Every structure is written in C-alpha cells, then in structure tokens.
Amino acid sequence: NGQAFSFDGQQSSIIGLPVSINPGDLPQMTMGMFVNLRRIFPGSLGWVIGHDNHGFDRSLNLHDPRYGSGTQVAGGTGIAPHASTLPFSLNQWHCVAVSYDAGNQTATFYMDGAVQTVFASPGPGEPTATLGGLANFPHNHTVDGLVDEVFIFNRVLSPLEIDQVCADLANPNQPPD
Q1: In angstroms, rounded to a whole number, what is the distance separating the alpha carbons of residues 43 and 41?
Q2: Is the dihedral of CA 170, 41, 128, 51 positive or negative?
Q3: Euclidean distance between CA atoms 149 and 147, whole angstroms
Q4: Environment class of 121 (CB within 10 Å of its CB; exposed 0-12, middle 13-18, buried 19+)
Q5: Closest Cα partner for 90 from 66, 63, 114?
Q6: The whole model's pTM is what?
Q7: Closest CA to 51 of 171, 120, 141
Q8: pLDDT tens digit string along 28-77?
Q9: Which of 21, 63, 148, 158 has the fewest CB atoms found within 10 Å of its own CB?
Q10: How distant, in Å, are the alpha carbons of 18, 21, 23, 112 from that of 124?
C-alpha cells in the first residue's frame, strides 16, 4: 500500500499470489498492472505475472527484442507463445493488461490504450500465480523494475474498461467516473 513492488531480476524476489488463474477456475479473466522496467536481461522473457509450468500457460511478460520479433507484451497459448507487438519503453510507467477468453480462444493484450488480439488456448499451469517472475524456471524469467496496482478480474474487460481501471488507479484521489 502506497509503494510499488520492486524486483531485482533475481528468483528470490518473486512473490507468490494466492490466486489461481487456471482456465478451469477463471475461463474468462483480465489481469494487469502498472510496470516500470529498469532493464531487460538479454535473451530473457520478463514474466511480470503468470503461472506457467512449461506449457505456454497464461502469463504477461515483457521481453527482449532478440527473443522474438520485437519488444512485446506476450502470453502463452498452450500451442505456442503468441505475442502482440505493442512497444514499450524502459524507465517509464506503462499500464499493461491481458484478457483471456477460453470460450473464444483469444487473448487481448493492452498497453497504454493500444490493443491487439491473438489466438490463445492456454492450458492449466501452476496452482497459483506469481508476480515478478516464474519461480519454477531456472533462469531468464524474472523482471528488473517496479510493479504497482496489480489487478485481476474474473471476466474479460473491454479496452475502455481497462482504460478506466488504469485511470482510476493512476489517480486514486479522483472520484470514479
């Protein structure tokens, strides 16, 4: 409360969350937060939040452009990782989110008002989610930076709803619209 989570890129800084984001528990969901990354480790996937157990499960990560086709918000699909091409900058706050809809087999990525939807059919992962990285991966799955105002909804939010959540969280002293 009143302070962002700070992650140093080490496995020891990962935080376990007492929530299951498995498709069986949340067939539809939206998860997001404000992120301010200091750096991205070369060749790494910076898992900000997820529950992946090596099966391309639900996650939200920001990664090195050398890992894929560009600096991206990415998430697993159960078949292969799919990523949006929403650019972000280091050392700046960004509101990022992903909505998963198991029935429609889609993931919609959101960053600072921009959206992109991809095919997604993620499988079940670990029983609980983690913040700041994935604890069961030996390397290259952590973040170095700040994470604040984490949110998880049990439904798919529209981009306008995510805009409103981000605005409300960024200005907590303003009455909600």
Answers
A1: 6
A2: positive
A3: 7
A4: middle
A5: 63
A6: 0.85
A7: 141
A8: 999 999 999 888 766 566 778 888 777 767 888 776 555 543 334 455 54
A9: 158
A10: 16, 8, 6, 28
Residue type, 2: G
Give the pair of three-digit tokens for residue 39.
Answer: 């750096």
Tokens standing for residue 116: 């992109």
DSSP type of residue 168: H
51 Cβ contact partners less than 8 Å away, ≥ 6 residues apart: 20, 21, 22, 57, 58, 59, 125, 126, 127, 128, 129, 130
142, 10 contact by CB (below 8 A)? yes
Q: Apex CA 85: angle with CA 162 and CA 87, to 5°?
A: 75
